[in-house]
Design brief:
Layout lengths: L3 E10 L2 E7 L4 E6 L5 H11 L15 E9 L5 H8 L8 E9 L4 E5 L2 E3 L1 H8 L3 E5 L2 E2 L5 H12 L1 H29 L1 H21 L5 H13 L1 H16 L12 H13 L6 H30 L4 H21 L3 H19 L1 H47 L6 E13 L2 E10 L7 E2 H4 L2 H15 L7 E5 L7 H14 L4 E5 L3 H4 L4 E5 L12 E3 L2 H13 L5 H17 L1
Parallel strand pairs: 3-14, 3-15, 8-13, 13-14
Antiparallel strand pairs: 1-2, 1-4, 4-5, 5-6, 6-7, 8-9, 10-11, 11-12, 15-16
Organism: Nonomuraea rubra
Keywords: ATP-binding, Coiled coil, DNA damage, DNA repair, Nucleotide-binding
Pfam family, one: SMC_N
Length: 569
């Protein structure tokens, strides 16, 4: 399902007070008397999709102009995903877009119920709509769009070489960036290498071990408090076992007291199992205290003041602390930094060899890119010739028999993501005229017809869901007008088409005919856009043909036009 505009509501825009357009998925025409506000319909659609806000377009007496559009989109499709990415919602495949312009020039936009910058509407519209107004022929005037459209028109012939070119271009760009890095930052890299060497020499000289800083910190604490530690251990040992200089433990040492307690309980343990358990626990406590006392004695004997060792530890800690302050948080971190620094230094010292390797690869890739770019140019040139001939043929049928459209390819100085080709559509208004860019080689009315011819040719290659044309039939009539209607109907087979026209030959081909009604006082009344049934279309076409809605001759001609269009479809 392709996206399409289902309904548009316009308020306070130009001569339009309020209007509602209900649009069909196919070919829609908007007609009406001069000054009724037909062009404001195109202006409203342009605003809806990010067009420039002109406060002079706000209806006199109104505070603001507003346009609201309801679009049918594919749930889960690309457009729905874009709306979701900005926080908007499209419920059941229905997306609401709103735009207001105040009389003071302030503009606001909403997308899926969320306020967004106007640029967001422009970005979204790029894949939704192509607006071709008299002063708004922007889509295919963009060089990047022209090249992309030509590539799609070229079809499968371009797919494989363009894929190969894109892969080579990506690697070429990476190699160029690496060479730039190596050659332009040689001084900085040399300075970096010197700093790394100095740091590695420092680390190698000190030769830190993992966890050494923590071990030294603990040893320094012990050596600094050796007397206090030995005294504490001795005192605790005496408290547990008594003074070893005495023949037996003192009356208040822990082992003696535990022995007395255990003897008292052991004497009566057979009378109560609960007390027997207490006796066992007292025995365990005695064994435990004996073990602790032994450990305390061994500890007290191992502790001794060593001023020389203390000085050595403090000096070693000072050297390690200096390294840690520079390179890491601890000795293990210093070793990790040294490992990384060594790897980086090896990389820096291998720059010359690496530069030679990259230079060889760069030259090979440049030659490969040149070959692939030439192949792309060849394919594009062939597609450009076919395209120019097809558009020129269309223009002949659109009352521009002497006009000629060509696609000019020029070579850029540098490789780009899509090759070296710069693509520009040009038109010669007559055989003696030189081909000029589209916006310079055609008048406003001619440009609309050129754009129609281009869109018809590009319809299968560069599809856009909705096309809007304003006065595409300016300056033509008769058979040429019929051909314009026929081509718009052909375009509507693959896209939604909305056309503002004053030609009945064009209007007859529409699937849906909307008329902007003009009030007797010259302004447009509320709900001034009306969808016509068959009888209404006959009356409107008769008015457009003869200036009289009820002219029998005009009505007969209108019926004939509708029959011709129906048969052609």
């Amino acid at each position: 399902m392709r996206p399409r505009v289902e309904e548009v509501r316009i308020q306070g825009l130009g001569v339009i007070d309020e209007a509602v357009l209900e649009l069909s998925p196919g070919f829609n025409v908007v007609t009406g008397e001069t000054g009724a506000g037909k062009t404001m319909v195109v202006t409203g659609l342009g605003l809806l999709f990010g067009g420039r806000a002109d406060p002079s377009r706000v209806r006199p007496g109104a505070e603001r102009a507003s346009v609201e559009g309801t679009l049918v989109i594919e749930p889960g499709g690309r457009v729905a995903q874009q709306v979701e990415d900005i926080g908007g919602e499209a419920e059941d495949g229905e997306l609401i877009i709103s735009r207001t312009v105040s009389a003071e020039g302030r503009s606001r936009a909403w997308l899926g119920g969320r306020t967004v910058p106007v640029g967001t509407l422009t970005y979204l519209a790029d894949d939704l709509v192509a607006v071709h107004g008299q002063m708004d022929q922007q889509r295919l005037l963009q060089p990047a769009r022209q090249r992309a459209a030509l590539d799609r028109y070229a079809g499968n012939d371009l797919v494989k070489p363009l894929r190969a070119y894109s892969q080579a271009y990506k690697r070429h760009k990476q190699v160029a960036a690496q060479l730039e890095e190596l050659t332009t930052r040689a001084r900085e890299r040399a300075q970096e290498a010197d700093l790394l060497r100095f740091g590695l020499e420092e680390v190698e000289k000190v030769d830190p071990k993992p966890g050494e800083d923590d071990e030294l910190r603990g040893e320094e604490e012990r050596l600094s408090h050796a007397d206090a530690l030995r005294s504490a251990a001795t005192t605790a040992h005496t408290a547990l076992l008594g003074d070893p200089m005495e023949a037996a433990g003192g009356p208040h040492d822990v082992i003696s007291l535990l022995g007395e307690a255990r003897a008292a309980v052991e004497a009566v343990r057979d009378f109560d199992t609960q007390l027997a358990g207490v006796a066992d626990r007292l025995a365990e406590a005695g064994y435990l205290i004996s073990d602790v006392a032994t450990d305390l004695a061994a500890y007290a004997e191992s502790i001794e003041a060593d001023p020389a060792r203390l000085a050595a530890v403090q000096e070693r800690r000072s050297v390690l602390s200096s390294l840690i302050r520079k390179y890491a948080e601890n000795s293990a971190g210093v070793l990790a930094w040294a490992q990384q620094a060594a790897a980086r230094l090896a990389e820096l010292e291998g720059d010359d060899e690496r530069i030679d390797e990259l230079t060889r690869e760069y030259d090979e890739l440049t030659a490969r890119l040149t070959e692939l770019a030439d192949r792309l140019t060849s394919v594009r040139q062939a597609a450009a010739e076919r395209f120019g001939e097809a558009v020129t043929e269309e223009l002949t049928a659109l009352a521009m028999p002497h006009a000629r459209v060509v696609v000019q390819l020029t070579q850029a100085a540098e490789f780009g993501p899509e090759g070296r080709d710069e693509v520009e559509l040009r038109m010669a208004a007559h055989p003696a005229a030189p081909p000029l860019p589209l916006n310079k080689g055609a008048s406003g009315g001619e440009l609309s017809r050129v754009m129609l011819a281009i869109e018809v040719v590009f319809a299968g290659a560069d599809p856009v869901p909705t096309f809007v044309f304003d006065e595409v039939d300016a300056g033509v009539g008769g058979k040429a007008a019929v051909e314009i209607g026929r081509r718009l109907a052909r375009l509507a087979r693959t896209a939604q088409v909305i056309v503002v026209t004053h030609l009945p030959q064009v209007a007859a081909f529409a699937d849906q005919h909307l008329v902007v009604e003009k009030a007797s006082d010259g302004s447009v009344v509320r709900s001034g856009v009306v969808t016509l049934n068959h009888e209404g279309r006959v009356r409107e076409l008769s008015r457009m043909l003869a200036g009289l809605e009820d002219s029998e001759l005009g009505r007969a001609h209108a019926e004939e036009l509708l029959g011709l269009a129906a048969a052609d479809r």
